[in-house]
Amino acid sequence: MMKKTDFRRLVFLATAVVFSISLLLAGGCGPGLKEENEKLKKEIAGLSADNDKLKGEVSKLRGDASTLHNQMADLNMQIANLQTQNQSLQNEIDKLKTQLKGKKR
């Protein structure tokens, strides 16, 4: 059987726990916390918008880089073709020079 003092301690402890929980709940939902929560929500929304904007910029820059890469490849092909043409023309000039020397002799 429970002693009278044990019962009083149990009631006191239960009352203290209920009181403590009610204080935590009442204090935790105060206007300061709600304001902080709203502030953080706005900050998250702003950061999300910035993040989306940066993702768009990254996508555009990747597209631009791809375009520039393709243009560089085309220009390198043009350079290679011009070098081949120059070499062919130089060979033709050398051939004509040789023919002219042969005719002068």
Per-chain topology:
Elements: H1 4-28, H2 31-104
Tell me about this structure.
This protein has helices at 4-28, 31-104. With 105 residues, it is mainly α. The longest helix has 74 residues, at 31-104. The radius of gyration is 43 Å and the shape is rod-shaped.
Largest β-sheet summary: none
Radius of gyration equals: 43 Å
Please mark out the parts with pLDDT under 50 across 5 or more consecutive residues, or reply none: none
- Secondary-structure element string: HH
Quaternary structure of the protein: single chain
The helix/strand class is: mainly alpha
For this entry, give a set of tags:
94% helix; 105 residues; single chain; mainly alpha; 2 helices
Task: Briefly characterize the structure.
By secondary structure, the chain is mostly helical.
